[in-house]
Amino acid sequence: MVRIVENRRALPNGLILAVHVRHDPNADPSVFANVAVELFGQSKYPDAFPERLPVDEAFLQALVYAERNWIPVVWIDDPGGLFPPEKRTVRDVGQ
């Protein structure tokens, strides 16, 4: 089971999947996400998600990838609050 974490302080030691949500008014779509497999903040497998994705798609792909690869945590790095929980298609069962 994959846990969704939104606070950096709640991240466990070890491998995580990070969904970095960003805004770029010149991009299409303007709100997008980069997904990265990270260990202590460093990208481990840069080729796993080579391109930015629409946020919904990135979130779902991150969850699937995490489950298939036994990665226990998906971190939503969303400093601008562009992808709040109510917009997500999947909810953490702990909420």
Structural descriptors:
15% helix, six-stranded mixed β-sheet, 95 residues, alpha/beta
Task: Report what the structure shows.
With 95 residues, the protein is of the alpha/beta class. The protein has one domain (3-87). The protein is built from one helix and six strands. Strands 1, 2, 3, 4, 5 and 6 form a six-stranded mixed sheet that branches. The longest helix is centred in the middle third of the chain and has 14 residues, at 55-68. It starts with a strand and ends in an 18-residue tail after the last strand.
Strand content: 25-35%
What is the alpha-carbon Rg in Å? 12 Å
Average pLDDT for all residues: 90
Q: What are the segments in which pLDDT stays under 50 over at least 5 consecutive residues?
A: none
The H/E string reads EEEEEHE
Structural class: alpha/beta
Structure summary:
This protein has one domain. The chain contains one helix and six strands.
Give the helix/strand layout.
Layout: E1 3-5, E2 15-23, E3 31-39, E4 42-43, E5 53-54, H1 55-68, E6 73-77
Parallel strand pairs: 1-6, 2-6
Antiparallel strand pairs: 2-3, 3-4, 3-5
